[in-house]
Amino acid sequence: MKNIFSHPEKSIAAKLIIAIGLLMIVVSFIFWYAILKKQEKDVMSIALKYGNSFVDFTKQSLRQSMLTFQPEETQNVLENLGTPEGVQRVRIYNHKGTVLFGSDKKTIGKPVDKNSVACKGCHVDPEKSPALVQNPKKWAVYKNGQGFTSLKLIDAIPNEPACYTASCHAHPEDRKILGFVEATLSLALLDEALFKQGLALTAYVIIFVLAVSLFLGIILYKIVSKPVNELVYGMQKVAGGDLDYSVPIKSIDEMGVLARTFNSMKKDLKAARDQREKWAQTLEAEIAKKTEEIRKTHASLVQTEKLASLGRMAAGVAHEINNPLTGVVTFAHLLKKKFPPDSQEAQDIDIIIEQSERCSKIIKNLLTFARATPSEKGKVSINDVLRRTIFMVQNQEKFHHIKFNVNLEDSQFIIVGDSSQFQQIFLNMFINAADAMGGRGNITVATRTITENSKPYVEIEFTDEGTGIKEKDLPKLFEPFFTTKPVGKGTGLGLSVSHGIVKHFGGYIKVKSEVGKGTSFFVRLPLPEKNNHEKNTGNR
Fold this sequence. Notes:
Low-confidence stretches: 533-540
Strand content: 15-25%
Radius of gyration: 68 Å
């Protein structure tokens, strides 16, 4: 509460308390003033009532003495009436304003004050004119010498029949008023009572204002100031970066709704910040991943360049070796003619010729595969290309301990394409299978016809007994430069290039693998409808 009023211009609760407090003070003051005036009016009404009763009593007390014309008795009665506490004086005066009788003998024979209610209560201007006012005033209130309120009442003594018919002092019948009775009463007791009531009322009002202000301050602090401070503190915490802080307002009013809305907004901000941080971490990890991929790609490109250079060199060496082999075969044929056909020498020379021709064929296949020639499409027999490729790899050292299980359908599976590209696909499959088995094991090669979506395909199966491929790596097999082989063992381009060639001819590659048991690649190439029809006719 103390902090509220230290800087009231910065506090809504302080402004509300001050505004409502001032309003209560003004309203309480108006209420207090109205009650005091009402009390004064009520007290004066009671005083007038009892004052008039006293005047009537005076008139009744004087009636007999005045009718029998006993001045001494009249004077004695007035003196007796003036003795009670609260009666300052009682007197009787005539039309001229001369005091005839009075409780104070000093005033007898003296004129009344013409500026008092005794004259001005009935006459418009007692000094100048005897004209009467329309509504005579019969009482007046003034402060006496001691500071207390005095009430002066005046009433006429009418001319009764008993007066104007009396033998002792007959008055004319046309005279309506014989004189006036004036009574001056002290209201000191009433003044004291009003003063005490005013003090009590003032005390009550002050206590009421203070109590209401106190309770109002507490209520505003609980309902307005404290929740607003909680919201301000929560906003400061959030502005400082603490998004875990929640405003502890559980009410169901507007403050509670505002607090829940603020907490919801803070929760959304925290989620956005966490998402941004997560994105930043993901971005950093992705950058690191891409950097590693670029490094590996660069290493693969360097290795690819080395392999390309080695391939060009191997092609040149193979070309140089092919010329001597041609000479060896030629001179072997010439030498064979010098020996009988069934002689041991002729048989040995046949072995030389056979092995030389085998070497020449291997070199020719190597040159055909390594030669960078434009793609030339023509009718290609898939089974023939498979046989040539198997024959070529069987003579390589990597495949000396690998057994090929070949199961080819009788159909040639004629496809319009480039035989060198198909040979490249098959060679990649064999090399990958050999690497997966570590150079030992069985490779199953099979061809068959399948139909998918009413379209005929030739399916070439390559199954090895290698280590298999992890399931998480299967979706990335055909990505460029992706390889599961150690650095230097592969470029990651073989399957990617093979996939591109197969896709170019309208086919696709399926993979089935089980870790520890092996992998099967199924290359599916579309067959022309005519070729499929011929195959079906030949099988009848």
